Amino acid sequence: MTSRPYPSIDAQPNFPDIEAATLARWASERAFEASVQSRTAGDGGDNEFVFYDGPPFANGLPHYGHLLTGFVKDAVPRYRTMRGQKVERRFGWDCHGLPAEVEAEKQLGISGHPEVTAFGIEKFNDYCRTSVLRYTSEWERYVTRQARWVDFENDYKTLDLPYMESVMWAFKTLHDKGLIYEGFRVLAYCWRCETPLSNTETRMDDVYRDRQDPALTVRFALETGESLLAWTTTPWTLPSNLALAVNPEVDYAILESNGERSILAEARLGAYERELEGAVRVGTVRGADLVGRSYRPLFGYFADTPNAFRVLAGDFVTTEDGTGVVHMAPGFGEDDQLACQAAGIDAVCPMDSHGCYTADVTDWAGQHVFEANPSVIKHLKAAGAVVRHDTYSHSYPHCWRCAEPLVYRAISSWFVEVTAIKDRMVELNRQITWVPEHLKEGSFGKWIANARDWSISRNRFWGSPIPVWKSDDPAYPRLDVYGSIADLQRDFGTDITDLHRPAVDDLVRPNPDDPTGKSMMRRVPEVLDCWFESGSMPFAQVHYPFENTEWFEQHYPGDFIVEYIGQTRGWFYTLARSGHRSVRPPGVFHLRQSRHRAR
User: Fold this and answer.
1) Three-state DSSP class for 58?
2) Which of 76, 149, 293, 482 is 20 to 30 A off residue 361, Cα-Cα?
3) How far is it, in rounded angstroms, from Cα 453 to Cα 110?
């Protein structure tokens, strides 16, 4: 009998040495590159399996979540390669936005817009440029050590000029289709980062955290003599109260004590049993009959506001908590703003970019609104307006990067009108194969079915610019939206080598519509949400439509994407809503049946 043709095996193998030897052999033989190059693309790319790799930030080391999904990102392309398909795997880097800026501020020992401006926008952005790619070599080492095959040599970066130009083109394309608008809306706002955030950013992991806030039940004196009781967990918004809201379909109880009458929802009487002890119920009034009544302002700061200090109808008013009466500060609540706007009440927003009261609130001007809560409460107690003061524990949104509690604030922002393409997004979602399958109609399906317009502008420094130039004189209005570097060079007569601030802000020209020649066209100061950039990855990575048009047509949409489940409301969603022709966002991972047939 002949011996078996197997090599001898060490009874105690040194696995790190085996790993190092294997990686060295793969590198010397360029095994990954050979596995890609030895497969043909086929006719029109029909033998290619298209994999999109979500770009991470390189201003920190990879964690186990990156590495875990990395194994799936490696296994599926390897399997497809073994089936004879050509599978390119290009790595990319997310370089802009709050993650980079917050980290840079920490490293520089500065914080907020004034300090960044004093430091110098150019110096700050240069630091961000260096900081954001600080760990690229460590990322490559980690990914390689986990035996993942990926192309680092031909990587893409969202800070590269070609990538940024493609993002500029995407913005203009959406604008030309009527899907971009500027609006003054109540948005989640980070006072530490001094910028609004999108709904997606307030639904990310660990954004909602338990927090205790003061809860106040306050009397509002109606012109008819009774007092409406309203409940709020944001006493700092009471100085800008302009209306109250009741549910027209709810019954409200009228109670009398010591000659004073109070009104609150009948269903909430039990919750106020202690405060209403001894009060006698003397009547009931339907919410619809309260609508239109006027009341005396708690504060005099905005007493002259037209059409204000009335009771409005609101079907969003419930009796699950509070009193069934909602205090309305249209500068600090989305429902408040919409209801007041419908009633002809303009929003007032006495808060500056740092979260402090403006000079309009004379008693606490310059004080942070959260810190002003005790003073506001003390003032109202002295005026006899407080019925109850206690503490409310609830889950509250925080900034996904700096971890400070957010506020909701009316602010000017640029939006993508997602509501106009929502039905198309829902339709395309049905063509996606999701794993696990329940995500299709579950968390992702419900998320897009209830999609809202996307705030894509950030009042920050390090990012792709909003490519909009406006006249600085409203007497001669003009708005120009640019979609290419060539168009910028044509109108501003200079070579463009950098689209970052402050270089792009320095592009100023006379307003062609001003016969006096005095007004100038200046860029709006905001930069784009970094999620808009990462959602542009399928085309921006190859500088489409300026280059590689045929390649993009043959490689879009992708066949496979994998990220952890939280990205269903992150990167997957931004791919879907960026307005691209037929984006296919995946779930935990996604395999399309036939990219070419579906096109």
Assistant:
1) coil
2) 293
3) 33
